[in-house]
Amino acid sequence: MPQLSTKNYLLKTDQGATTILLAFLVLSVLLMTALTASTIMMYQVQMSRETANSIQAFYTADAMAEECLYQVRTMADDSGDNCTRNNKPIQLLLNLGGYNANGTAWRENNNALKAEGVFQATQRQMELSW
């Protein structure tokens, strides 16, 4: 009677499980890299949009400050006028590509004025003093 061998043999399915586990690990690393890159890109797009809105809001505030400064320079020192037009605070409403930019300006004291510009959700203020 022939004697049976007692050697231990590895099943071929053990190698397949290792390959699947390694592939899963590589795909997980690729997924994390892609998610990180997309998060960074979305943040950069949002920052670019806010910068563009900030520029529009700043220029609106600048236009209001110029209008108020013109009124201050042309009126008498003791008139007490507070940068008004027809007894209402001066305001600006612009239609920029379907979005509205509004601004207001007011006089703080005899030697200073403030102006505010708003475009979408971005607000910018400036103060002029002399």
TrEMBL record:
It comes from the Bacteria. Keywords: Membrane, Transmembrane, Transmembrane helix. The keyword Transmembrane applies. The chain crosses the membrane at residues 20-43. This is Type 4 fimbrial biogenesis protein PilX N-terminal domain-containing protein.
